[in-house]
User: Which sequence fits this backbone?
């Protein structure tokens, strides 16, 4: 065999090997693309799952805040009754402030309800939008918890004052 024939055979074998390498590279790129899409989808599902859980916490905390506000109003009205200030300006001012907090708690609860169902309304949104909403919900959760704790503290203060009046009545 002449060197030219050997060289031609080597070139053909090399071309065939190159073709196999190109096919393998395309398959590898396709597999990498599929793996990336699967990872993106898993990240989206995880982000949506966390968002829905956070939204549910916001909804619950908002509802608990509204209940705490109603309880504080009852305790404040009892205090007004015991102290003889029923219908007074201080009672009206306190009840009005508590009503504003109750309304805010209901707004927070409603905001949580918007995103507290699965599948989320953000299912096809970009991850940046999901992250923006999740951050907003986290802030609302903090606000709702702080408000509920403040309302529970106010109610406890009213109840302590009510107890003082009750003891005076009992002692005569």
Assistant:
């Amino acid at each position: 065999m002449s060197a030219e024939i050997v060289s031609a055979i080597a070139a053909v074998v090399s071309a065939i090997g190159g073709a196999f390498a190109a096919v393998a590279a395309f398959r590898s790129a396709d597999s990498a693309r599929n793996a990336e899409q699967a990872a993106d989808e898993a990240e989206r599902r995880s982000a949506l799952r966390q968002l829905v859980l956070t939204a549910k916490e916001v909804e619950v905390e908002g509802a608990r805040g509204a209940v705490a506000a109603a309880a504080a109003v009852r305790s404040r009205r009892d205090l007004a009754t015991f102290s003889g200030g029923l219908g007074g300006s201080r009672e009206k001012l306190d009840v009005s402030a508590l009503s504003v907090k109750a309304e805010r708690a209901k707004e927070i609860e409603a905001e949580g309800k918007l995103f507290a169902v699965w599948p989320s309304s953000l299912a096809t949104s970009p991850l940046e939008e999901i992250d923006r909403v999740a951050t907003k919900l986290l802030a609302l959760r903090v606000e709702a918890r702080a408000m509920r704790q403040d309302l529970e503290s106010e109610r406890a203060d009213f109840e302590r004052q009510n107890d003082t009046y009750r003891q005076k009545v009992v002692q005569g």
In short: Residues 43-171 form one domain. The chain has one domain: 43-171.
